[in-house]
Amino acid sequence: MIGFHDPLLIDICLLVEFHQSLVMFVECGCYDAGTIAGLSMCEQVSGQCQCKMSVTGRTCDRCKDGYYNLQKENIHGCVGRFIPPSPQKVNFKLKVH
After folding, report:
1. CA 28 to CA 47: how far, in whole Å?
2. In the chain, N or C terminus with fewer CB closer than 10 Å?
3. Measured distance CA(41)–CA(56) in Å, rounded
4. Domains plus CATH for the chain?
């Protein structure tokens, strides 16, 4: 019906807009040493912070597996452990002159 406004629908829309504005102001709790540029910004729905390359966790507060020593000054976040390459079979050809 043209010109008909259901007050219940209006209330639901206002509630959704109010809820979305609250989500934008939720404290992310990002760990600045592990976030890109030390920013405390997160994804609105999951709350996932923007982690440096070798950092993990919703708040970017720990190193990924194989990494250690989370430091704010490290652009990657953490230092990687040296893992020697696995031995591979190498074929040598001996040329005799």
Report:
1. 6
2. C
3. 15
4. 28-80 (2.170.300.10)
b/e map 37-76, b = 16+ CB within 10 Å: eeeeebeeeeeebbbbebbbebbbbbbbeebeebeeebee
With bands split at pLDDT 50, 70 and 90, how would you rate the model's confidence at 23? very low
Can you give the pTM of this predicted structure?
Answer: 0.57
Count, residues in the chain: 97
Amino acid at 14: L
54: Cβ–Cβ under 8 A, 6 or more apart, which residues? 63, 64, 67, 76, 77, 78, 79, 80
Per-residue pLDDT for 71 more than 90?
yes
- Does 18 score more than 70 pLDDT? no
